Amino acid sequence: MPLAPKTLAAFKAAKGFMPPDEGLALHSAALEAGKLGLPLLEVGTYCGRSTILLADAAREAGVTAITLDHHRGSEEQQPGWEYHDPETVDPEIGLMDTLPTFRRTLHKAGLEEHVVALVGRSPQVSRIWGTPLALVFIDGGHTDEHANGDYEGWAPHVAEGGLLVIHDVFPDPEDEFTGQAPYRVYLRALESGAFTEVSVSGSLRVLRRTGSGV
Ligand code: SAH
Ligand code: MG
After folding, report:
1. Residue 22 domain flag
2. pLDDT (0 to 100) of residue 173
3. Is any atom of ligand 1 closer than 6 Å to the C-beta of 153?
4. Is residue 158 part of a domain?
5. In a domain, 214, yes or no
6. Which atom of ligand 1 is nearest to the CA of 42?
7. Active site residues per annotation
8. Structurally, how many domains does the chain consist of?
């Protein structure tokens, strides 16, 4: 089932970092994984651009999309850094807060009822997590600490036959300004023997859980 025109329009209008071609690959992966009948989980909501795609697939599959973020932004999104957007700062406290924009984005897309938003730090949430997941999409912090924390915390929860999707994988250091931690995590997933590559779309990698050992 391709993306509904309304969903595609909402995705294109949303603030965020997911290019359309990679977004369509994410959507296809989520549709396929959703057939397992288990939830889909995203690390790195930001303003909800990619969440729209998971929500659309969740609706199709009759499952829930879960999206996790502390909503205070990654290192490279802070004031003075390359990916900063002044509109994301809460003027009262002077810190980034992407939660209000995310909620508006999802509402406009008409997909609120298919999404559960978790506000918190990835390792703190993964530590108390117990439900197997059809798909884990890692699109959070780009430091080694954060990317490894996301992998270690969430990869074990991908169900057998489920998918692990990693964004911002750049094998060539020249292509990426925020570092190659996602690439190193991708290699780690393959080397673990628990995941097998399914597809490559730009910087998006889709892996399937085919074994244990994460
Ligand atoms: N998926 C989004 C982009 C995500 S940007 C899109 O399609 O546009 C990365 C997000 O990860 C930021 O919003 C940042 O706040 C969040 N993040 C970074 N490290 C995190 C952590 N340790 N726990 C939770 N969220 C984190
Ligand atoms: Mg990304």
Report:
1. yes
2. 85
3. no
4. yes
5. no
6. 1
7. 142
8. 1
Indicate the DSSP class of residue 2: P
Spatial separation of the C-alpha atoms in residues 34 and 135, rounded to whole Å? 8
69 in ligand 1 pocket by Cβ < 6 Å? yes
Structure confidence by residue, pLDDT tens digits, 68-125: 999 999 999 999 998 999 999 999 999 999 999 999 999 999 999 999 999 999 999 9
Task: Tell me the CATH number at 13.
Answer: 3.40.50.150
> What does pTM read for this prediction?
0.98
Q: Is the CB of 50 under 6 A from ligand 1?
A: yes
Model confidence over 139-196: pLDDT tens digits?
999 999 999 999 999 999 999 999 999 999 999 988 877 789 999 999 999 999 999 9
Tell me how far apart the alpha carbons of residues 148 and 151 are, in angstroms, rounded to a whole number: 5
Domain that holds residue 42: 5-209
Nearest-angstrom CA–CA distance, 12 and 19 = 9
From 21, 27, 70, the mutation candidate for ligand 1 (largest count of ligand atoms within 8 A of CB) is 70
- Other beta carbons within 10 Å of 213: 9
